[in-house]
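Marked as duplicate of an earlier ticket. Keeping the data here for the record.
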Amino acid sequence: METPDLTPQESALIERIYSHLQSTGLRDRLSQRRMTEEVARSLAAGSPALIEAPTGTGKSMAYLIGGGVIACTRDKRLIVSTAGVGLQDQLIHKDVPTVVEAFSKFGLTLPSVVLKGRGRYVCPARLRVAATQGSMFEDEEQSAALGGLRKSLRGGWNGCRDALESPPSYPTWALVQNDRNLCDGKDCPDYGDCPYYQAVDQAISARVVITNHDYLLTTLSTAQQGVMCDFERNLYVFDEGHHLNEHIIASFRQQIVVSPDEARSIAKTIGSMNGSAKPAADMSSEMISGLCKAINQAAFNMTHDGETQHRFPRGEMPGGLLRLLGQWRSAMDALLLMLRPLADSQPRARASAAGLAAKLRLDLARLEAGVQTLDAILAPSAPRAAWLDLAGSSWSVCVSPFDASGIARDRLWSKMHGAIITSATLASLGNFDHIVRDLGLPSGTQTLRLPGVFDYASKARILIPKAFPSPS
């Protein structure tokens, strides 16, 4: 069946793929066929579409077939984004191989890879250093785990934590995970064997990339470059799209802990490396300490006894608090100006080691991140939420957009040439007005609400127990 914006060849290819899958014993459903055609048509037209497909429709096969056909025939890359890594693994191990095999019957290759956040991949350089220093660890279990990771990497493990049968504890993984603040990129002697960069290289040449909302949106909001941001070539499918609003908001949230501990450590390092800079570093550290104490006291004064959160009406912080935050930012910037030349003077080729160079790189990255966060907090912006959170004896200052529509409109839909948002639950009160508004989608966005595939009326009963135990 030919649909608008699809060539006869593309429509025929979809039919042939379904016929092949039927010959292998798989059964397709009318709802799945309709979704496949809508996915292909919308991606071919370069317009966004909302598709609500109830459980049992076979959404993943529908968008992989429809999106895969358009990607192959028009030399595009299909980016499939999920709400979490669980569905990523299900897609790459179950649905994708079936679709790849079907496409191959018609001479079409569909190289497909998974790409996750870099923190889920091991850093070979950090692993080597941590494992060879195993005798220094008091924790024999941790030392054994590090040795096991090295053995697994030599034995063909792809370096992703999720691929391990028995992943190490998170404290152990933190010692060896890929960290952009410690990454030397192409200057690293282990660059060619780095699992993260291998995954990125595979994604660049792949036809289908399976990723997740957090990684995709964080890349769009920070790096704004790389394979995820190749808008001219990419087509996008957001599965589990009912989570998209909250993921967009979370990706643009800012938070900073009001604590002087990091500044004190940095000042001590500066003083040990450059004696002449010690007085100025100590002065900045003491200023930051005093400002943090004043900010924490101001936060306590705004709350009642026992309260661990304070929300600012309309997201507007009082002038006194803003002035303290501005002074804190200036003091951090002064410390940053002293730290940066010291960090830059260290040889980058050894920065991934667990030594002074690595500490300076981490200190620099955290200080720069703190300044950037305070800039975002202090900058005038669109309506947002602002609040204080208490953890222990220190407060955190937090700001977050509460409306994802403007962000999505500017960062996603205005740049993407074809995007599908699908889930089992997208419509509200029978229409898509609510999600169109929340996600800032164009007024002409195509929508499709597919019927359920299960005959609940004759195949199901609702049973309500007369007596039910207390949840406690």
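See parent ticket for discussion. Confidence is low (pLDDT under 50) at residues 349-353.
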